[in-house]
Fold these 2 entries.
Entry 1:
Amino acid sequence: MSIAATKPSESIAPANVDALRALVRDANEGGMSLVVTSSGGPHFKGGLACAEPHRLVDLSSWKRVDLIDRRNRVCRVEPGVTYDELLTALEPHGMTIPMPLAPRSTKSVLAAVMDREPSTWPNKQWDGSDPVGSTEFIFGSGEHFRTGAAGGPGSIEAQRKAGGAQKFSSGPSHTDFHRVLQGAQGTMGIVTWATLRAELLPSVEDPHLVIGDSLETLIPYVYDVQRALLGEHSFILNRQAAAMLMAGGDPARFASLADSLPTFVCLQNIAGFERLPEERLSYQRDDIQAHASRHGLKLLPALDVLSARDLLSRSCNTCGDLDWRSERQGSCLSVFFLSTLDRAQEMTRLFIRCAHDHDVRERDIGIYVQPIVQNHGCHIELMIPFDPRLSDVSARMKRLEEDAVARLLDAGAFFSRPYGTADRIFAKNPANFALIRQVKSLFDPNRVLHRGKWGL
Amino acid sequence: MTLDDKAYETLTGIVGEPWVERAACVLDTYAYYQNPETMNEDGSQWLPRPAAVVLPDSAEEIQEIMRFCSSSKYMTKPISTGFHTAAAASNDNTIILDLKRMDRIIDVDEKNQIAVVEPYVRAIDLQTQLLKIGLNCHIISSGAMHSLLASHAAAWGYGVTGASTSYSGRNVLGVEWVLPSGDIVTLGSAGSGSGWFSCEGPGPSMRGVMRGFHGTFGGLGVFTKCAIKLYKYDGPRSWDFEGQSPNYVLKEIPKRSKFTAIAFPSREAEKDGGYKMGEAELNYGEFRTPMFFTALGLTNNNLELKEALDSGLFPKFANHVLSCAFFAASDGEFAWKEKALAEILKETNAAPVPFNLTASVRSLKVAGKLLAGVKDPLAPIRKSTRLQRFAESSGFGADQRRATQSRLFWLLIRNAVNIQAAHRPSQGMATMMGAFDTWDLAHTQAAYSAKAKQKYIEQGLIIADGGDLGAGGTFESGHLGYLEGIIMYDPSNPASVEAVRDLVEGGLRAAIDEAMGLPIAGFGVNANKKLGPACYNYDRWVSRIKATLDPNMASDPFFYAEPDDEE
């Protein structure tokens, strides 16, 4: 929102890695900056907005899923593979993949994981960079690299013959360059494929809802269950967010849900897998129920207007071409950041106060709280749907975003994925930003990748 | 070259006179580490005598020292607990920064499972606090005395609870880092004042140049704080024991705990078992214990070890053993895990090693003779779950069983015996291979190591350990696997040392030729030159990073990278 974006001079769809490298070489020889996309539009967060003259490199047609390895629970995807395509490919092998909350049907899996988008399956994420295994990418300089186990020695085929599956993400040796590319929004390199950690597909599931009238009533329960690594998919939505997610753009359905859902609802999936599935599910349900009871909460299979199974299904599938946040009014202000669960209540109250100052009612604010990295942190997302055709509303939302980001930053919100005005977070850690600049000068010495983003 | 007077004055001005030392007798204590003869080209057991040893107490003092080094001929090498040769100075212009005064546990955030530590916080110090509150940290198998900051931020190492506590390099949630320039940068959320819960971002994660798989070994500045990820621990929060060193026996085996050693009939079965146990999320701790390690772990001295091996029993049942520990938070969970394990044993034709029998030399000799004609002494147990249950729960041999289970508790949970045991047979221990990826690849490496060692075993140059000392296990519920090939040798015998060098070097070449992954020894200036061309010229990239972040060579480059000439 803060960038005076220019349109790309052209959109180019390179056929293969060689053609892509040629584009990068051209750019280094005086050509225009390159902005890369792998997802289909509409692009919700504004990550492609570029103020400098640039060409758009579109990798959405790169669709290969050329490794699915059940034994090692790993797959390899190219940039254009969407969640629907990957889920369909994995399912016959009894596997699935942790995914963001109901992504757009055109959302690139690779783009999501390289942007560190949170998944709804927190206890499968051991490290902030998961589920990324190895990657292949092209530096801004045009040089070619592979990270993790794929970094060598040997070809991919030879590695597989030796029993490897390019699953380890660190290396080669002293390097961990996939982390530099993650969150970089295309400023450090162009990823041409990544291996991803897959998970077993649950063979039985018994999802539940846990409800509360405030975040504070649910959070102690979530801490206990996540710490014990119990259950599977889990997240918290307030009634507005749950209604936005479940209504699918239907105003009547939205109104019905928003009127009748409890203030907060936590999805708690419980599952069994290939081994003794029913028995696993049984003990997990007992143990989770015990945690819920200790906090005066109940596991509910359904409410009058919402079943846990429907919520799980909606969250673990794509939502359609338009992001669910925007289905209601055409657009949505989304402010998201990381913190820890014990600060979620404070942060959301702060945002609500800020929104109130900009004439937004609390009842119009959606709240999504997602534990990440085995609940060592959490993603907090605050959403206000609005009609982008109303210019005064759009302007108000922009002012609200700027104000909210500033206040949240002061309160300790960590905008780890800075979009829009959240890029002011770089000023909070100038030493880190200086380091980013130094690394940028190595990875992309001629600043051909997304020139000008964040001042890089 | 000892520190000159002007430099001495500068450094004492920074840290105070008591904390700068340049007496040769002290400096030499920093010139001897674990088995340096295999890394020194001349086979010497001594490493370069540093110019001085300085003991700073804060990041700010280190900042000043780095600035001093940036403008002088000196460079720094930080050590915390120090163990491996990579902790040493590489030349006599190097000032050792001994960080043992920085030993504070800054924070334990129980709720969010995060600890923030300074360099000299030893794993045992933190773990002792953590277990009491049902948490644990990943501890590498150099032992519980090691610096957690070193293993997480700056170096590598495999730990026996990797199945449930991941790998140190993946458990970093933030660092405070004094760059070679003297600038202090805090990575991740803590750098933005948001708390120590994430090391990624904002935007691109500079964690990507901070350590990689191997770490920078002090070659790119100094880490002064590290936030590490903690994990649940459902084992006992306190325990009583009896006995005396080295045999401390738990007075009782904690409820909902299992300590077992699973003997698989073949490497293929062992591989399958590792994957299956990982998928079932069974193991909390896990250590592959091939024949020689099993015998080592059951004996107290080398004579007992020799006689145990002479019994001929161990190669019959213990070539493919995984020692495991698991816990459960509820009776339901424990019952499920027991049942899942029983299924896996059946599917892989594996058996738990019966712990009821004493491992005394006399009994082993008798058993060896009695079973001389028996190919697989565990065959009856493999076939009978009833026999397995009897061995695990009957009163017969209960004290002996508890003693052996206790050994596994100290090994797999408290990390109390690993390194002492590994050095006992010959005083010299080296390692080869050790690339991280899958459990299958780990076994490919172990099989290679076992084969490569045979020649030297036959020549009597290394310990006759059967060849396969592939040490490691699965990580992150079977998602990853790791085995390094341990070699035990005689450090006082140049031919034995040369054999180790041949093996490590041969392993490195084989890793390249046969695509077996980048070995554990694949770090530092010399190894990078060999491996880099086979690995997308990563050596050039780290040299560029070195040139950019350390243009005045304030950090000793040897175990990381020298600056790229082109820069």
Note: The CA atoms of residues 409 and 425 of chain A lie 7 Å apart.
Entry 2:
Amino acid sequence: MRDDVATTGSMKAWRAVLVVLGVLLLLLGASVLIGTVKPVKIAGVALWFVLALIVHDGIIAFVTFGVAFLLRKAGRALPIAALAIVQAGLVVCSVFAIIVLPAAYKKSIGSKNPTVLPLDYGPSLVILWAVIVVLTALAVIGYTALTRRQKNRPSVSQA
Amino acid sequence: MAVVLGRLLGIAFLVCFGTGLYSHFLQEPLPWMVFPTRPQTLYQLSQGIHITAGIACFPLILAKLYVVFPELFQTPPIKSFVGFLERASIAIFVASSLVQIVTGLLNTYQWYPFPFPFKQTHFALSFVIIGSLAIHIAVKLPVISRYWTRSRSFDADGNLLLDDEDLPLTTAGVAAELAETTAEPVGPISRRVDGLTGRLFDWIDSAPPRIETPKQAHVSRRGFVATVGVATAAVVALTAGQSFRVLDAINVFGPRKNFVGPNDLPINRTAAAARVTDADTGADWALSVSRGSVVKTYTRADLESMTLHSVDLPIACVEGWSQMASWRGVRLRDLLDAVGAHPDEDLRLTSLEKSGGYRVTEMGHEFAQDELTLVALELNGDPLDMDHGFPARMIAPGRPGVLQTKWLSKLEVI
């Protein structure tokens, strides 16, 4: 049945429409870029494309993959849900780092006027990280305690 | 998993694209375009959603790329010409998406450390991204269709149903397949270990595998989706207060904060940045309103002596922050009537600022004739601050902040 879905005429038609639409939009994007941005600046865009791929695929992805793997190895003794909670804490901390650290840095080198970036980004980020660490620890402790209780008194909890 | 995340990311991209196009055409309308002026918070809503969805893209895109990370190492790296095109389109898709959201975020800080102009590039890349997205969906359509619904993806016990080709190759599997297809005896099969990734994967493989029960796999899948959900909700909640008042109390990380600034309102461009000086706005200042040869000029005292109206309208910036404010000033329609303007005539506005792309702008008649559109003299109960456009500025419903011209000098009916 699955093969039928993949080879039906309507799917082929949809794929063709999407490819044509995609190619047209790509050409439109390229022509807008060429029409409004100087060639040397377009080279700047290309440079940033390459940098984006290097930074993501070369650094962020490897670090994430490495940390996930090490955590998995180190966390063999932990129940998988506890491991998932720790990972979740790390992920949320990292996402905020990516979004907030540039703001903290820009504020430190000065913004265009005092109403741009008026908040205390760095200190707030540290506080948020601390809150996430505490919440993660509480969640792991709570989860472990809960499962231990259920294991110790299986008949009572299921009665 | 890739389908689940891709769906959310695709929606976020389309929302950004749609709201972005709306913002673009408000600033550079085609001749036939007329825009709605109600609700007056329309642009606050559309651009707030644009920026908020853009911020939400960060956790979503990172999660999506994490899920498909192994695809980066498919061997051989290029299988065919079509395969090459597919990988090239993916590379452009990923690179343009990352550059788009990163430079977009930096733009909300008014920070431009990149070697290209923001506005033009952001606009052009939006087409590149949506085009690549269409191609990506076309390529993956069988997979997307296969895993679109829960009932197709899981069996009755909640186990993920994988197609044969989605399962990783095992040495035993390859040996069995070879034995079926060749008469030659098959020797021991070993994985080639060369290069960094080969060695890394070998090291991973050499570790005793942790056997996951279906229940555990379910937990880690659910955990991952929940994590992405929490991260996305958290970044939105702690920044969206810059655009939406209800979240102002928990706006901890937004680049702007409501009520911070002169007249209790943030500023995009200061008078100093626009090179507007006290000499320009002193006693000699007058606003000229013209239609053809009919010209009327008004000093600030003249404007103050006219019938003044009070309206509540937001300043909604292209960079995403918004704040509702109370304005008091002369209704623009009254000034236009005085020079005999017709209701379907548009308006050209000129500011005292010395340079900048928005020194001279045009306003469609739908905004010029709106009863809420004012030449504002006061903001939040006090005379306009110099940085908010003293002696007089435009304020109209549903327009981006850059078009709410400050330091007005000339209004010409066209």
Note: Chain A touches chain B through 75 residues (CB under 8 Å).
